[in-house]
Amino acid sequence: MALRVHDTRRREKVPFTTLRPGRVSMYVCGVTVYDRCHLGHARCYLAFDLIHRWLEASGYDVDYVQNFTDIEDKIIARANESRGGDWQGLVDDMIQGYYEDMDALNILRADHYPRCTEHVDGMIAIIQDLIERDHAYVADDGVYFHVASAPEKFGVLTGQSFDAVREGAGGRVDETGDGKRDHRDFALWKAAKPDEPTWPSPWGEGRPGWHIECTAMSLDRFEGAFDIHGGGHDLRFPHHEAEVFQGECHTGCSPLVHHWLHNGFVNVDGEKMSKSLGNFWTIKEILERVDPLVLRMALINAHYRSPIDMNETLLHDAERNHARIVEVYARALRARTTEHPVPLPHGDVGSSDALARSLGLLERMAEGFALAMDDDFNSREAVAKVLGGVREIHRLLDGGLDEADLDAVAHHAVEWLEELAGAILGVLPSRDVLLAEPEEDPRREAIADEVEDLLAKRAKARAAKDWGAADAIRDRLAEMDVEVTDTADGPVWSLR
Ligand SMILES: [Zn+2]
Question: How many A from CA of 235 to the centre of ligand 1?
């Protein structure tokens, strides 16, 4: 089965097609960098990480763009509160924090991370064009997009009228302004206010509105229509609908975005995350008590469009399932006895029918995994296939195989796990971390008993204030190249 994706605009699963064969252009709205990322961000960027990984595994060359919104009301407010207005410093620190969090969650980097402030000229050019085409107008406090002028109406992604969605969103629609002609219009350019960073424009000093930023950055990179635009469910309105208006009115190309994909919410213990409920966690806070790969496991064990409820049970299950995968991976790695095994021919292997059946089952699990991922990236089902494979791998390694078969099976299992649980689900620890054992120095082992004995005698001599005996022991240890450090927990020794 070929890949099918749920397209928000078409409101159904559609075959995934690309504008250019073998290549995917994908833009995902990035974070507004005024604070550390929270659980909702982890969910979103993990969802698109899996999509990114699966597209690459399916043979596509993906050009993945994710922006940083580095100028916005919240950034200015936070910088004024806590940094004496140094918004650039705040932005740089939060971008650094973003990379730390996402790297910890094993989220592969996008190909390009544009910052809004690097694209103000492009935004001005699009706004100018929209004014010339009568899709935008200049007011006292900025420039607005005139929604009534667009062929599309609000509702293109949500299926609801502007007023219905605004009601649902608790009336919170950004980009309100005094100069609007119509309450549905939104700001493309905001005239300068005191104590704010500003850029020059044909309409005076000011700064861009949020929606125009993503349109300018995606068009700059892809130079026209592109394959996937993604983001959180809550960005559909007004942000992404505004992008449809601007982008399509500016380019005359519809649809400009070929597949709109949106990920679901995260709740915590059945409640919406919010600072006032005290259940609002940053990724950094969660990772102080949860292994990052366990958190990753918890968040991918759901379809990306479904809501997730983060609670102790979910984390506990993820921890157990993750441990099972890691355990079997370590077991398979250690069961290998050669570096390059005789390859296992598919379907007809090994010394017994049971072995052949077991390997056939593993192959069918991998096929099931691929079908699940091709069905709108159903990672929950894909995780289930990997866990089924874990059981089968244990059975194979338990099976009383002869040495050559055992080695071949272990290599096959390692490859299977590294492909599905590693390259695609991203939940395997590295081989090196897993196989690292405390290093035993053979020289140290050979003299360990004697050294311990001497250290015990030295302690006795010191207690008896027998300095001659203590010095003799010190000299003997020096001859053996042993260095002793006295600590609060007693002497610790090493070899020079
Ligand atoms: Zn955006």
Answer: 8
C-alpha to C-alpha distance for 326 and 494, rounded to whole angstroms: 33
Give me ligand 1 centre to Cα 490, in Å.
59
Collect all residues with Cβ–Cβ distance below 8 Å to 278 and sequence separation of at least 6. none
Q: Where are the domains of the chain?
A: 21-289, 311-435, 442-495
What spacing in Å lies between the alpha carbon of 112 and ligand 1's midpoint? Answer: 14
Q: Tell me how far the alpha carbon of residue 266 lies from the centroid of ligand 1, in angstroms.
A: 19
Helices (H) and strands (E) in the chain, counts: 16, 15
Q: How many whole angstroms from 247 Cα to the centroid of ligand 1?
A: 12
Give residue 155 CA to ligand 1 midpoint distance, Å: 17
The pLDDT score that the predictor gives to residue 437 is: 64
pTM score, whole prediction:
0.85
Amino acid 171: pLDDT: 44
Confidence of residue 347 (pLDDT cuts 50, 70, 90): very low
Q: Is the pLDDT of residue 374 over 70?
A: yes
* Ligand 1 centroid distance, CA of 88 (Å): 20
* Class level of CATH domain 21-289: alpha beta
Which residues are paired to 309 by β-bridges? 267
CB of 393 within 8 A of CB of 328?
Answer: yes
**Spacing, Cα 425 to ligand 1 middle (Å):** 26
Q: Which CATH number fits domain 311-435: 1.20.1640, 1.10.10, 1.10.1740, 1.10.730?
A: 1.10.730
